[in-house]
Amino acid sequence: LPTDTLIPLKRKGDKALLRGNNPQGFSDTTSKYTKFVMTGRIAASGSIMSLIGGNDKNLTIKGEKCFYRLFIDCASLTQAPELPATQLNNSCYEEMFRGCTNLKQAPKLPAKTLAKNCYKGMFQECTSLTQAPELPATQLANCCYEGMFWECTSLTQAPQLLATTLTDECYAGMFNGCTSLTQAPELPAKTLAYGCYRFMFNRCKSLTQASKLPATTLADYCYHQMFSECTSLTKAPKLPAKTLAVGCYEEIFNGCTSLTQAPKLPAKTLAERCYEEMFRECTSLTQAPKLPAKTLTERCYKEMFRGCSNLTKAPELPTKTLAVKCYYDMFSGCTSLTQAPKLPATTLARACYNGMFRDCTSLTQAPELPTTTVEEDCYGWMFSGCTSMTKAPELPAKTLANGCYAGMFNGCSNLAYIDVKFTDWGTGTDSWLTGVAESGTFHCPAELSTDYGRSRIPENWEIRKWIHGTP
């Protein structure tokens, strides 16, 4: 049939029988593909293989993207055809039924060896689908299940996932947005692959039980946002790995507002971004886990507890050598935090403490900051919005770096005392004391020029100068 052929089915029970010889399928690229357009209510039946080989006994899909988007957005489709193929090809079923909002049951998928992208987005946005098909495959391929049931909001149960050897992004986003899913399947693999579980249960707001995560060998971004915004999840799985990978736990529990206890984090060898935003907005979390690592990496703890508004105590942070953005916004928005951890580090890095205690409105005392050598943006916005703080920590650095104190005490409305040792303003103090108390005391060396303004000394503050260590 030529493209855009209209096949009217005028009466209930009317049928259209289709058969073809299209061994490579119907699609060449993601922008050039063939699809059905339907109105009314239509049930498909028989083997889909009769459309490509003229023989519904054929079980091999030869062409890549063979059935790519064939029924996309067919809201009229109430029943899917049979998909008997056991030998698949890359992207063969990719987004095949995406947006089929009246499809309630998925066809059987008997293949045990998968191909790249084969089921990617296959049932995405099938909002009436209540049950997933069995998935017997044990040999996976890159992105094979990626987004397969994305936003299937009526899906209540996940299928068993039998594979023990994973591939890059194999399960990425598989159940993302499945808001009726209450329990996650077992995940037996002990060695992970790049991004294998990323976004897997993201936004599964009814999920009350997480999968066990027994893996001890991780991979970059393997758990990235795995349970992000699972607002009914109260308990986190154990995380036994002792050596981490880039972004491995990034945002894994971000937005899990019912999570009351964090898992133990035994790892002593970190990687870049490994814990970034791990517990962000976990508003029921009251206690942080211990962090035993002594060597930090770039962004390792960035925003780790940001918005944990019921966190009352911070973990110990004994490390003396820091990394770029390692503590960036780590406790930002922790409005119940009353005591800061000790910060003994003497070797800083760019933006290492930037925003660390931003908007910690219950924090009354700042930790000591012993180092005399600062780095670019190292303390930027560190205590911004700490409205209960009345006294700044001593700032012993004699030479400033670009932005090192920028916004450091911005919005600390009760701050009335600060003691500095630098002798030249440079470019390190932009907006650093904006919004502090209307009156206060500013201690500084005699050599420092007494400039007033948003990036210098607050108006109406008393200035006390030190001469060779004597006030």
How would you characterize this protein structure?
The protein is largely without helices or strands and 471 residues long. The chain contains one helix and five strands. The protein has one helix at residues 50-53, and strands spanning 42-43, 77-79, 417-419, 441-445, 462-466. The chain has a three-stranded parallel sheet with strand order 3-4-5, with no helix packed on it. Strand 1 (42-43), helix 1 (50-53) and strand 2 (77-79) form a beta-alpha-beta unit. The model has no long low-confidence stretch (mean pLDDT 94).
Secondary-structure blueprint:
Elements: E1 42-43, H1 50-53, E2 77-79, E3 417-419, E4 441-445, E5 462-466
| DSSP, total strands | 5
Order of helices and strands: EHEEEE
Per DSSP, the total helix count is 1
Query: Describe the biggest sheet?
Result: 3 strands, parallel
Quaternary arrangement of the chains shown?
Answer: single chain
Helix content range: under 10%
Structural class: little secondary structure
Radius of gyration: 29 Å
Strand content: under 5%
Distance between the termini: 94 Å
Order of strands, widest sheet: 3-4-5
Mean pLDDT across all amino acids: 94
The low-pLDDT segments are none
Task: Name the overall outline.
Answer: elongated
Outline of this structure?
The protein has 471 residues and is largely without helices or strands.
Main traits of this protein?
471 residues, little secondary structure, two-stranded parallel sheet, 1 helix, 1% helix
